[in-house]
Design goal:
The protein is of the alpha/beta class. It has 14 helices and 8 strands. The protein has an 8-stranded mixed beta sheet with strand order 3-2-1-4-7-6-8-5, sandwiched between helices.
Length: about 350
């Protein structure tokens, strides 16, 4: 009889609006004021202890908590930070009088497992007026952009400005990406929501077979060892890098695109590292020409441009200033990640 009376006095199921408001009120309350277990625990509320009513109220709370987690994740991470939803990729290739190598590069991009949204070829004043570059770009399905200001910094910046993808990837004309390169670039950016740019490794496409990987590794290791401490993070490598388009938009007016004697990738590293962070992604690798190690004049010019780029950013970007800024940015990024995890736990 007591059970029958309890069933008769059982409160009816609440309408959806009341259910939602109950769950919302519980989810928004401080933890120390929430009822033990869930908001339907009738030891605190004084309502009937029927299991059915508790289940209904528990379902309301579950719906409310799920909505809060989704909203918090969307606000803190964004669509680019959710693995499984790969961002679109625009590939930018600055070129000058290098149509044959560009042909090989475009052919490699045509064999990608994940097709890029677009390929933007920037002709930087080729001696034939860009006719050969235009023909190769058209044959490879690329969009041609012309930049008359001399220098790779101007050409690369013009390509980044023209790109429309969520991720802007950069190759040189002599870069040969593997068939999974675009996919790995998209994954590398999507899996690192706390950084705005990633860079990868390389191996030489020519020269003695036994030295192709070892020589490229030594070349890039020297680059990282020499410039990593000055930057506070890995330097971007112009033959194989990618950044969020929003990251480029944040620095596009700050980069030194008018100075042809700077390394554009190193200049970009100085600007992006302080604001959005740079990470090394070992999964994205391309083959590059071994010309830097065979031409002494070219090697000397590369070193001179490297020193010029660093000195252009000093004294405002001296290492201790950069490390202080980079550490502060990393702490802020960790705080956002911790907040996101708390949202998921609620």
């Amino acid at each position: 009889m007591r059970r029958a009376a309890s069933a008769a006095n059982r409160p009816p199921c609440q309408p959806p609006s009341a259910c939602a408001s109950t769950g919302r009120a519980w989810a928004q309350a401080p933890r120390w004021r929430r009822p033990h277990g869930h908001e339907g625990d009738h030891r605190r509320t004084g309502h009937d202890r029927s299991a059915g009513h508790r289940i209904r109220l528990g379902a309301c709370a579950t719906v409310a908590a799920t909505a809060r987690r989704r909203a918090c994740r969307s606000r803190l991470v964004g669509t680019g930070g959710v693995i499984g939803v790969l961002p679109t990729v625009s590939v930018v290739i600055p070129v000058k009088d290098d149509a044959e190598r560009l042909r090989v590069c475009l052919a490699a991009l045509g064999r990608q497992a994940v097709t890029p949204l677009e390929v933007v070829v920037v002709d930087n004043g080729s001696s034939d007026g860009g006719a050969a570059t235009a023909a190769v770009a058209a044959a490879g399905g690329a969009r041609l952009v012309r930049e008359e200001r001399p220098g790779i910094p101007a050409a690369a910046a013009a390509g980044y400005d023209a790109a429309v993808g969520e991720v802007i990837a950069r190759l040189d004309a002599d870069s040969i990406p593997g068939p999974g390169w675009v996919r790995e670039v998209a994954r590398a950016v999507a899996s690192r929501p706390a950084v705005g740019a990633v860079t990868g490794g390389a191996e030489f496409s020519g020269g003695p077979w036994g030295l192709r990987r070892v020589g490229a590794a030594a070349y890039l290791a020297a680059y990282h060892v020499a410039l990593g401490p000055a930057l506070g993070h890995p330097p971007l490598f112009g033959s194989n890098l990618a950044m969020r388009r929003t990251a480029w938009e944040a620095v596009r007016f700050a980069v030194h695109r008018g100075d042809a004697e700077l390394h554009d990738d190193l200049d970009l590293s100085f600007h992006l590292g302080r604001l959005v962070g740079v990470a090394y992604a070992p999964g994205i690798t391309v083959r590059i020409s071994h010309r830097p190690l065979t031409d002494a004049a070219s090697l000397r010019r590369r070193f001179a441009r490297g020193f010029r780029t660093v000195f252009t950013h000093w004294p405002a970007e001296l290492p201790w200033h950069r490390w202080r800024a980079v550490v502060a940015r990393r702490r802020a990024a960790r705080g956002r990640i911790v907040l996101d995890r708390r949202c998921e736990a609620d």
